[in-house]
Amino acid sequence: MPADLLESQQKMLRENWGKDTGLIDKIKIFFKYEGMCLGDGKYLDYAVSVTDRIFKDYHAPMVYIDTFPNAAIPCYNKSHGHALGYGRHIAKGNRDLCVQVLEKNPTAILACESGSAEYLLDVMHVTYHKGLFHVGYAIPLFSTVYQGFLEYAGWWMWPPYEKDEDFTSNLAFSTHLGYMPGSSVGGGPIAQLLQLKATPEDPKTKFFNATVDMRTKYRDYVASGERLRDPVVEGASPRELHWSFKGGKYPLKMSLAPVLASRWEKNNEKGKELILVSNDSAQKQAVVVDGHKMDLEPYSWHGLEVKREDERKITGKMTVPLPAAAKGNDEVKATEGYVFGPVLGIDIEKKLLTVESVDSEGNTAVKKTLKFQIMPESKFEAEEGLGKLSIGDMVEVYYQKQGEGQEFTGIVEKIIYKPEGRKPEEG
After folding, report:
1. Which DSSP symbol is given to 107?
2. Region 16-24: what's the mean pLDDT?
């Protein structure tokens, strides 16, 4: 930055930010260029007109705005008419740019580098989301919570790939999370395939093309629908994989099954769901996914469209048809149920187990206390009997529901208690 400009910036800081001149004089300006302020009406008009011309003159269906929205940079230019320093004008300027461009071009698609911000969800369509660098332990909460508002690209995939499945597993995993297979920089799969000079017959290329075809076919679920709790896959054992992040010399060791599955609800069609299954390995796989037997070809995707009312949807567990009635009682009808929660009470003498459950009623989470009867035929997994459980243990309970007026919620079929937590392949 030129010395005269640096001096003027420091002068504005002294006048508007504080009187500690010693601190202000030590401030270093790292950029040799100036950040433009969209809070300035004249510059906002200019940015809108340039973007509009790209759509009008070049008939482009989409415009990508790089480094947008950038980090909030304070502006002390009094001629702009906004509050000096930081303020709402920073976010408002970013949003006004998108809104005004879309007003002039209603069918336009806007893409940006870092647009995963709540105030842009309704005016931005695609974003290169850089929120996941260390994929070994990153939790993609933003893309999970706001899935369906905009498309996310940018799940980081970096070489080296010691084997094909290091690439295909990474792509499958991110796709099940809702990420679009693409990116604006070299970390995306397209750039990596080009760098590797992968041929059309390369398994990595084939799986990438299959992934694109799958998302095109099921975009109303995966791109614009709602992601539900993942189903459970049975029959596929995990294997060790190596994933890398940018600049990483030592790959992350991952343990994932070759068959992954996710569940999605279709956009604007409540009750219509998709069970999406991938096989990112070089071998055929025979698995059971939410009660559905599937034979999967190597490096393939499989989608099964189902209606919720045709299945018993147990959160994250097996899906089976409803039983007709409880055994041994023609008057009290019973259906199969499932609950996951902490143990609140244990009565060994009466063989009763009390578990807390959290259900949703509309937009409200409701805690419920459920009491279950243990029978001689009730099965325990990982623990031997009711006496081995303790208050506070997290358990999964499969049970036969009882009718209205019964003193307990249901009769236990199976209890699962795993103090070490679930294995990666179990969700």
Report:
1. T
2. 71
